[in-house]
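FORM 7B: Structural annotation worksheet

SECTION A. Query
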Amino acid sequence: MDYKQFYRGRKVMITGGLGFIGSNLARSLVDLGADVLLVDSLIPDYGGNLFNVDGIADRVQVNVADIRQQSTMNYLVRDREVIFTLAGQVSHIDSMRDPYTDLEINCRSQLTILEACRYNNPRAKVVFAGTRQIYGRPTSLPVNESHLVRPTDVNGINKAAGENYHLVYNNVFGVRACSLRLTNVYGPRQLIRHNRQGFIGWFIRLAIARSLLRAVASQRSGSRRPNDARRRVLRSKRSGRSIVATSCCRPLM
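SECTION B. Predicted structure
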């Protein structure tokens, strides 16, 4: 079945749905006719913003909630057919400054969602937003799924653990899950207030401010735009897999 037909009338939940990738994905899903629930804790500086759903606010449901709350997740997942788990702590810098918060959000919260699905909605399809960061410094290019996982910071370690939780629940408990290892996604509604969530957005911020930019690129960065990222996310129906999906977030269709 074509993915555009697959999502028509489908009940979909997006954690981190008011953030950069989540809001772009939500726009594509509502255009495809999906019933979309957005879950976001709106933690300051994490990227969630009600402005990101301006223009589609009347076509989505929004629940301001923390994915670390088990009882809340037990309730929210019940009737959802597809769940995109995009909520997370994505700053590598912050993970080194505050490793416990990174552990809570990128590990414990993933177990919260998976346990909620296991006991309340085991037939849901779950797509986890992983990261290329788990590879660490690449030993060969281009990086693919067979590259060794050798993260170099706390965020990479916790994201690798979160991904493996999803694969274990797929293989052992029958919760249909897969992981997309996203790389340097950029595009509309990206947070550029600070430099802790992606270098491309920060470069753009500096350019807008007319600051001097000096960049030396000796190799392709593998950066992607939201359009490409959204297509890959929407098409990720096969469970039990980890896929390198480097993309961008321009308008998806």
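SECTION C. Observations
The two ends are 17 Å apart (CA to CA). Residues 3-246 form a domain with the Rossmann fold fold (CATH 3.40.50.720).

SECTION D. Sign-off
Analyst initials: ____
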